[in-house]
Amino acid sequence: MNKTAIVTGAAGGIGHAVVEELAKNGFKVTALIRSKKPAEIAVNPQNVNYVQGDVSIREDRERLLSEAISFAGPVGVLVNVAGVAPTVRADLLEMTEESYDRVMNINTKGMMFLTQIVAKHMVENAQAGEINGSIVNISSLSAYTSSISRGEYCISKAGVSMITKLFADRLSEYNITVNDVRPGIIKTDMTSTVTEKYDKLIAGGLLPIARWGKPEDVAKAVYAFCSGQLPYTTGQSLDVDGGFHIRRL
Question: Is the pTM of the predicted complex or chain greater than 0.90?
Fold first, then answer.
């Protein structure tokens, strides 16, 4: 498998940690950012090419793929991290169409159609008997957990998990695996506004592993899929959530 990767949502948090993990392990990474360039990664910064753009815009998606190929050749790995939470946490009965469209366009539609063009590229470069690619989508515990003050986010992440299964099915004949990682409560900018809430829930026993998750925890799970060490695993959702998904009495 080509050690050429595309990572979206790379400016900070999980995306930045994924870029760092892949670059450290020898991947040439083209990293999509929406605004300013993030801090330089600690190991192999020469392995990273930053591209500014918006995953919800078709022309930006096409340019991202083109720049990745120019930077390091055929793409073997795609990691879809880019995602946003609602600007305002509104009750489900008050959710606006504008908020729904914004979240879905980035978290689900943009990811869907970037995956489509990268998958076509991987298929065109597929070699018989080889591992021809790995696609990893960042979903969320919100894919199966109700949060009625951010319903659009939950819907978007449930969509990510289904897109994973669809592409896993479609691309299996080409030996391209597609999986998703479902982070739990991860300390990032997205969760910074609800720190006190989750501090109390974790202290109260919400998680078997009683701590906040770190972006690095998610990045290591992503690398496990990208490394080629799981060639017989596809269409799988991996919970990186401190055991949140365990039902317990």
Answer: yes
